[in-house]
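User: Hey, quick favor. My workstation is busy. Could you predict this chain's structure for me?
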Amino acid sequence: MKNEIIRVFPNSIAEELLIEAGDKLLTINNVEIKDIIDYKFLMADEYIVVEVEKKDGEVWELEIEKEYEEDLGVEFKNSILDNAKSCSNKCIFCFVDQLPKNMRKTVYFKDDDSRLSFLQGNFVTLTNMKDEDIDRIIKYRISPINVSVHTTNPELRIKMLNNKTAGNIYERLLKLKNADIVINCQIVLCPGINNGEELLKTVEDLFKLYPSVQNVAAVPVGVTSFRENLYKLNTYNKESAIKEIELIAPLQQKYIKKIGQPFVRLSDEFYILAEKEFPNDDFYGTFEQLEDGIGMIRFFNDNIGKGLKKLNKTGEGSFTFITGVLAYEEILKTAYMITEINASIKINVKKIINSFFGNTITVSGLITGGDITTQLLDNEKGDYIIIPSNMLKSGEDIFLDDLKVCDLEKQLGRKVLICDYSGENLIQIINENCK
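Assistant: No problem, here it is.
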């Protein structure tokens, strides 16, 4: 069932060959398709022979001439054509371990699968991979791959990941580097454990692998109120955030002089906690680390700046912007800029306190539908409520607590509009919903 096709795209090779939803892909060039990497690798040819099992059990052998990079044009029931590999670590900072009960089951699954890193951008630790798995990444050119490093200190990494095999991270990164695999690295910073001098050493070690290691994202540990019997962790405050920014700045400047970019960047939360200005556009390059919260506010402000030129200056409307504690002040500034141009547009910015996970969680991407409903119920809502897309499951309209957008609309009596979390279409949404 894992290779079952659930959708055939219009005008595709599959449609032309009468492949249908419900059919199963068996082989390509007589090689059994075990997972999505096999599929991607074997499809990369100008002449292939595929075996497809039809819904009635008949097996078709199809000869295909195509462009080198051309796909069959199908969607599989299982995106990776295999069961995802679960994480074998017990990290002292694991966010999944500090989730409350009664959330949807998929939230509790800890994936650590290089195929999901390649396809969806997920970060992997490389700890549950055998040498042949690393060789397969190299053979199939699975690149880029996103790796959760946290530290290059072998003993410290073993401690942080609670995994006796976790200490060989640098050896594995070096092997990938020697094979020209592109790597993006992430460090979850835990104050007093892998920050400070340990962070500097880790970054310097990773820079030796440049340009295969393209960049490093450093993000603060997230701590919820559900950490009973777990490793005691400290969180960042204004003082410690300032210290981290000032510590890493000389290293960033050194790399800017060497390669034209800072190589390591801290997430926006550090600058907000420290009450410091965000670096300029050039510092963030092409904003390739947005998913890690690196440069998100700068990117958002840039998009709003461009979008304001297109704002409807005569329309009327009222909106409530929903945001988390972290970005609240920035979203307030955005609302002010909009209403300065058109005073007939009324905007209420609602800061949602995270009661679900605890008030130490301040990012908008972890806000639940229940918290929005509870905290907005007796407040001014305007004609429309606007939420960022990162509050929802990717590609769906479901919050972390399983509430759907339609549930919010029913309970709050307002239409909920979804904006790209980078703010690219915020002005467009306002224009379309003004009178």
